[in-house]
């Protein structure tokens, strides 16, 4: 009876962690402390794997599913160098501003092709800075009259400005859809 209650508690904790991981996937948030993200993924993958290994199904079926798993892992690791070659991006932080629950980072980035470029990332923190999400991007203006004002947009391809950041005054303003 005691092991059944313990198993039920473990299952409830796992379900809670699963919902947390699903929420992170849907909303785009992640833990501010990167090892917690890795620990969440390891927990979400290892618990069902251990339950499968300890289950009472036919051993031939376990061997077959295990071989399929090994083949898929080999296939994934075989293709990782090609995936990383075209997705790798180096980032070097130049300057950071902290404004209430937001952090603006000026980063110098270098993709797999092309020259380096400067990009502003607007990061929103939630729950006592435990989780974070990059909510807007901006690029330095080339015109002299707008040197201090950075328009932060939802993504690179968007024309809608969500925030404006004044680098000279360290002031962040939310832009409304009908003006300011």
The secondary-structure element order is: HEHHEEEEEEE
Indicate the radius of gyration in whole angstroms: 23 Å
Specify the structural class.
Answer: alpha+beta
Q: Indicate the low-confidence ranges by residue numbers.
A: none
Helix percentage: 40-55%
Taking the sheet with the most strands, its summary is:
8 strands, antiparallel
Provide the β-strand percentage band.
Answer: 25-35%
Task: Round the mean pLDDT to the nearest integer and report it.
Answer: 81
Kindly describe this structure:
The protein is α+β, with helices and mostly antiparallel strands. The protein has helices spanning 2-27, 34-54, 59-87; strands at 30-31, 90-99, 102-110, 117-126, 131-138, 149-153, 161-166, 171-174. Strands 1, 2, 3, 4, 5, 6, 7 and 8 form an eight-stranded antiparallel sheet that branches. α1 packs across α2 (34-54). The protein is elongated. The N and C termini lie far apart (63 Å). The model has no long low-confidence stretch (mean pLDDT 81).
Defining traits:
eight-stranded antiparallel beta sheet; 3 helices; 180 residues; elongated; alpha+beta
Give the SSE layout.
Layout: H1 2-27, E1 30-31, H2 34-54, H3 59-87, E2 90-99, E3 102-110, E4 117-126, E5 131-138, E6 149-153, E7 161-166, E8 171-174
Antiparallel strand pairs: 1-5, 2-3, 3-4, 4-5, 5-6, 6-7, 7-8
Helix pairs in contact: 1-2
Task: Please provide a brief summary of the model.
This protein is an alpha+beta fold and 180 residues long.
């Amino acid at each position: 009876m005691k092991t059944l209650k313990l198993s039920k508690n473990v299952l409830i904790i796992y379900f809670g962690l699963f919902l947390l991981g699903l929420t992170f996937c849907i909303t785009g948030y992640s833990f501010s402390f990167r090892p917690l993200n890795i620990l969440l993924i390891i927990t979400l993958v290892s618990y069902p794997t251990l339950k499968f290994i300890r289950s009472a199904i036919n051993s031939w079926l376990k061997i077959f599913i295990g071989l399929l798993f090994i083949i898929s892992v080999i296939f994934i690791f075989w293709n990782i160098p090609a995936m990383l070659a075209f997705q790798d991006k180096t980032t070097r932080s130049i300057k950071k501003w902290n404004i209430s629950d937001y952090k603006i980072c000026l980063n110098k980035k270098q993709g797999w092709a092309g020259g380096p470029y400067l990009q502003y990332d607007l990061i929103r923190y939630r729950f006592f800075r435990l989780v974070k999400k990059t909510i807007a991007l901006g690029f330095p203006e080339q015109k002299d009259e707008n040197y201090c004002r950075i328009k932060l947009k939802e993504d690179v391809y968007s024309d809608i400005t969500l925030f404006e950041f004044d680098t000279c005054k360290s002031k962040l303003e939310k832009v409304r859809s009908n003006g300011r």
